[in-house]
Amino acid sequence: MRGPLPGDCFAFLHADPRLPTSTERTEIIDVELRSDGLLSMTCSWGRQATGSARALARALDDSIYRLAASDEGPTAALNGSILRIGEVRCLLVTEFDGDLSDLAVALIRRGAAFEGIARIFLRVGGVVAHPAKPRLRHFRLAAVGLSHAHGELPTLHADADLNPNAAFCAIDPRMDGVEWSVMEGPVGVVLFVERNEGGRSAITSLRSETAFAHLLRNTRHPQRPDVRALIGLRTMSENAHAFRLTMGDPISAAALIATQIFHMRVDEPGEVRQEFLYEWETPHAVERCRETGAGCNPGASRPGGE
């Protein structure tokens, strides 16, 4: 970038994980200050925009996503997030963007290795994330155990006169010392996240047919659904363990996920064997699992799930 955007705008967009292959490319972004006080941006891939620093940051963010989608070609994109908990690679899927960021950050705080969010693309044999940090509104920081004093949090305001608590801040996934790296390939667990505001968090297993239907509903296709994309989604729903997570709050939901995945182990890359499968609810089931290493909700277990 020649002529950096003022303030936190560039830091908000900056993402530099370790990538799976040497596929890095160089693009040039020129930013100039105009006589009327506005900024003009010209990108080497043809994008142009004029406006305030915040407006250019939003335009650049959108342009980077479109560039990533163009690089991937006519493939499907998932509204999800990818993290690794121990040896298990997990895909979180939801139709609410805020839920993804809340839960991803809560899992990062519990030691999960973050790969990416929102820019998740389907590839032959699995999924891959294009780099982007999780983003939270400032008023959501406390919900995931963070505060304004928790390191530097690059912030992007929608407008100068808005309540600063409503501004978005970018969360560095390495804040607790876990490396940020991106992988490509299958996932061992798919979690479909639903809201349960004010209630308890709970997790239940899903049959592959139900998981496939959920994946279809949360997939964006550049054109009409491609046969290869449908095969990829079907393969994922059959090979990964699928769960429905109703999230009361992100911290208890993250504890519940970590407890469930504690009972899984990887036999081969992307292949997960489940030792125990129960329907669990917080807070008592989580505490029971911590104490006994196995605890379940008797009568709630249902082999095969929904």
What do you see in this structure?
27% of the residues lie in helices and 27% in strands. With 306 residues, it is an alpha+beta fold. The strands form five sheets. The chain has a seven-stranded mixed beta sheet with strand order 7-5-6-14-17-15-20, with helices on both faces. A five-stranded antiparallel beta sheet has the order 13-9-8-4-16. Strands 1-2-3 form a three-stranded antiparallel beta sheet, with helices on one face. A hairpin with a 5-residue loop joins strand 1 and strand 2 (39-43). It is globular. Mean pLDDT is 79; it is low at 266-304.
Strand coverage percent: 25-35%
Average of per-residue pLDDT values: 79
Over the alpha carbons, how many angstroms does the gyration radius reach?
A: 20 Å
H/E series: HEEEHEEEHEEEEEEEEEHEHEHEEEH
What topology emerges from the helices and strands here?
Elements: H1 9-13, E1 29-33, E2 39-43, E3 48-51, H2 53-72, E4 77-78, E5 80-85, E6 88-93, H3 97-109, E7 113-117, E8 120-123, E9 126-129, E10 135-137, E11 155-156, E12 168-170, E13 184-185, E14 189-195, E15 202-205, H4 208-217, E16 219-220, H5 227-239, E17 241-247, H6 250-262, E18 264-268, E19 271-274, E20 280-281, H7 284-292
Parallel strand pairs: 6-14, 14-17
Antiparallel strand pairs: 1-2, 2-3, 4-8, 4-16, 5-6, 5-7, 8-9, 9-13, 10-12, 11-12, 15-17, 15-20, 18-19
